[in-house]
Amino acid sequence: MIDKLKKLALGASLLVTFSHVSVAQKAPQLGKASVDEVINAMTAEEKADLLIGPGMPGYAGLVPVEGEPDVRVLGAAGGTRAIPRLGIPETVVADGPAGLRIQPKRKGDDNTYYATAFPVGTALASTWNTELIEEVGKAMGEEVKEYGVDVLLAPALNIHRNPLNGRNFEYYSEDPLVSGEIAAAYVNGIQSNGVGTSVKHYAANNQETNRLTINEHITERAMRELYLRGFEIAIKNSQPWTVMSAYNKINGEYASSHKDMLTTILRDEWGYEGFVMTDWFGGYAGFQSIMTEGAESDVVAQIEAGNDLLMPGMEAQYARLVKALKEGKISEEAVNKSLKRILNMVLNSPTFKKYKYSNKPDLKAHAEVTRQAAAEGMVLLKNNDNVLPYTAKSSPIAVFGNTSYNFIAGGTGSGDVNEAYSISLIEGLKNAGYQIDQDLKKSYVPFVDESVKKEMKRREEKGLLAVPQRLLEMPLDNKVVSEKAKSSEVAVITIGRNSGENEDRHINEDFYLAQDEVKLINKVSNAFHAENKKVIVILNIGGVIETASWKDKVDAILLAWQPGQEGGNSVADVFSGKVNPSGKLTMTFPVDYNQHPSASNWLGTPIANPEEVFYKEGIYVGYRYFNTFDVEPAYEFGYGKSYTSFEYSDLKLSDGTFKDEIEVSFKVTNTGKVAGKEIAQLYLSAPAVLVDKPEAELKAFAKTKVLKPGKSEKISFTLKAKDLASFVNEKSAWIAEKGEYSVKIGASSKDIQLSDSFKVDSNITAEKVNNTFDLDAEMEVLKNN
Ligand code: BGC
To answer: Quick check: CB of 501 below 6 Å from ligand 1?
Structure first.
């Protein structure tokens, strides 16, 4: 659907009539005259030129489309229009979270425009390393700048409400603190290049099914504590140039015309100064609604709510806005504010500053950045008998599973990147000096090639995304597997999954392994264990899958995520021990899909074509639910193993009673035999008199530097009143309740190493806010009491 819309926008961009007034000699020029003077000089048409995007010229095609105006950056998603009379240049925006998404080839041009495919969001977040994420951002931003783009449409930080969201791979976590901190670091890194970002999708874009129309009923508390909180942290800590509003409705109002969200909270409460753009075609019920008069949402409501730019820009929107401007049916104040915000961005843009981009970013240096980031985001889920690191290079490794030969660098849709190359697992292992069993390779390579072709055709016929979510595993003869168990010292099996925007993931054969995959694991494990040899599973996935039913059958599991274009090399770095794994889970891996409280209302009703969804689990998302209601997961939030071990000690609180803040410090020591980094997490249990609370919530985290064996690092956190507080709806305030708070320092959300407590003498109102998000339907919400 969205692709159809995107094509339509491309066509539509040609239809827009540019009705600039004839060149007036003394028209104020942007940069010379003040922004207000420029705005005052604008005609209605010029105002619409700036508030309605230019369509998507050059978005879809590999080469410029016949008759279409020249595009500066082929494959960019849009931008803002030029108004030459006023000295306003066009600017360019392009996707997306895992790197810059532009077309790599141009007609009549021998140069290539490849970008680096960095690890996907879940992989980046699993590093818990904000310094590293900032470095990734710096590298990504250099590509944005050197390819002539002004704003990158990233980062994406919606909460993982449910493991089946098709875009979870682009997002970071089920926890808003992790999401917000990672996003802020990413934005700071990118923007240090003098280019912009767009934090998206603001907010609660938690499912792809009917994303353009779905009405989500969510309590104000869940909005403020979960779905908005990550955005709040990112905005306050990084001031992204732009924000992208989400498609969905919240309590009956489209996010793109939600005044509470776009003005009251974003601007008035959080002090945001940049501009907001819609997601592409956001605020309309789809194709028909955009084309017909009296669309469900409308330009006036969006701009008056504080949504400054409508993307990608449609003829109908343009006409409606011009009419409203001429008839005085739109607030002049709102229009001028939006124009000012957009012009401020234009003034800051490399385009306005006439930056001479090279089209030659440092792809070589960035390959190294992505390789390291991906390795650091890998999570070692299991490692019996220290099978990893695996250092024997004298006998071949038996490599099973289609995905080993067709490794997945990243997800699909706007979160995809056009990279020059992608290192598969077998290439990575080979580059690291390992021998790969050649018979298996000879069977797998042609099988995988053929399967990809077939599956792409099938999906195309069904109108699905052109990239397979998974391929049916190559059937294996028992005899072959037994032979390999004799001739190889170890087996590696890769399980792969792909997904992307527009489509959610499925429970069967996606979240759960398919029968062909179960057979593969059984066959290989039985044969190798019969020979006393080990089996290692590599998970090349973007989001959570089920592991509980098969994890006991194998010896080690390395969660490699979708690690970007250097993926095979990054896996080999961890496999060989060159890098000691230090990633931890930023989401829960459940035993069973139905353990998630959102499972019973995922996607909404009516089931065949959901219109509304009730977030009945309230604030109990992810570990907040599992740990409060004593539900045992397969791997908990915050979990991840290392090749070394760490000891926590010396917990100190600066005071027994909380005044304005409290300092918590402790020591982490590497007690193992190899160097490594540890992620320490601070959870807080708070008194629950005014409102019910989760058992504990993450309030701070830190990653140590590389600690050599025997070495320690002191970690300190400062907790402020807002860190102690929960949102109390009746009082429209964040309140830290009086009573006793337990500070729990954990290696994961369940592996608590140290604890202590402090008191709050009387209720503290950490922040008084506006009353927003009135529910539009009755809803029973899960409580802990
Ligand atoms: C996606 C956005 C993306 C935009 C432009 C939309 O379909 O939801 O994340 O930035 O397209 O490609």
So the answer is: yes
